[in-house]
Write a structure and sequence with these properties.
Largest sheet: none
Shape: globular
Structural class: mainly alpha
Radius of gyration: 21 Å
Distance between the termini: 40 Å
Mean pLDDT: 79
Length: about 300
């Protein structure tokens, strides 16, 4: 995996060996990027070739492509992201209202939530391995993901605290805004070392949570205890931090896609990737706040 999520790992949103902007100034025609990045200089990509480069520019040096129609812009990314997240929010609200979590229908609500989560996961994997963006598939993923989030959020609000869900939403928004500001101010530098650390930490985190889940299923309780008590708080904080790091990687990849003139349809993939990351952050925030509220 070369990215913060599988959506970008197969796309050409990078400037150096498939990574987001790492040592871009060293990319030369026929260099490492050739044949691996369809938006890189020297890769035979019409989006990256600039016949109007200023005189004296080094041959093969990265030069931003001239303005053209039909290419991805930041407005495209914002619009598609709003549509995708709006679908998540809408279906979450509907499932909260139509599938209330109470002792009378607890099993039904949880069963629908688990089914929706599995369908969303399958749709996400299908889109991740498709060569082109499918808006219908992405919006379907968002709809099923919203059903899952709505039921889980309703359960937390019912059995933990009424204010936890609102706090988790505000916390997710704060993380997004904070990372965006830090990225735009260049306080966060997406380097090869940063990328490697984040991906290694993420794989370790996910594997550890899967082991904890298996122990929970076969042994009962919270398995190894990584999702409750003091350890739960610690791993909740780690999960939120990893989500913030994923956002930085996503921002860099979107920036590179725009700089290299990726096709407009790629904005749907950008929206999809950002939605995956924001869902991750929200779930980790919700779990963390639930533990903190439960310990009060």
């Amino acid at each position: 995996m070369r990215s913060s999520n599988p959506v970008f790992s197969r796309r050409g949103f990078s400037r150096d060996n498939g990574y987001a902007g790492f040592n871009a100034q060293q990319t030369q025609a026929g260099g490492p990027a050739a044949g691996t990045n369809p938006y890189a200089q020297g890769a035979g990509n019409p989006y990256a070739t600039n016949p109007y480069a200023p005189a004296g520019t080094q041959a093969g040096a990265p030069v931003q492509a001239p303005a053209r129609t039909g290419v991805m812009t930041i407005d495209d990314v914002v619009t598609r992201t709003a549509m995708t997240l709006g679908t998540v929010v809408l279906t979450a609200i509907l499932s909260w209202v139509l599938l209330p979590v109470d002792p009378a229908n607890l099993g039904t609500s949880y069963g629908i939530a688990v089914g929706a989560a599995l369908v969303a996961m399958v749709l996400a994997l299908v889109q991740a391995f498709k060569r082109k963006a499918s808006p219908a598939l992405i919006l379907l993923y968002a709809a099923f993901e919203g059903v899952f989030l709505g039921v889980i959020s309703s359960a937390v609000s019912t059995y933990i605290s009424d204010g936890v869900v609102a706090q988790a939403v505000l916390g997710t928004m704060a993380v997004f805004a904070g990372v965006l500001i830090a990225y735009k101010m260049r306080w966060i530098r997406v380097t090869r070392r940063f990328y490697g650390f984040v991906m290694a930490a993420a794989m370790g985190f996910v594997l550890l949570m899967l082991v904890n889940l298996l122990f929970s299923v076969f042994g009962g309780g919270d398995g190894l205890g990584f999702r409750s008590g003091g350890l739960g708080i610690l791993f909740g904080v780690i999960g939120v931090i990893l989500g913030a790091c994923f956002l930085a990687l996503d921002f860099k990849q979107v920036e590179d896609g725009i700089a290299y003139g990726a096709p407009r349809e790629e904005s749907w993939l950008a929206a999809f990737g950002l939605t995956l990351t924001l869902v991750w952050i929200y779930l980790e925030m919700l779990r963390l706040l639930s533990i903190l509220q439960g310990d009060d």
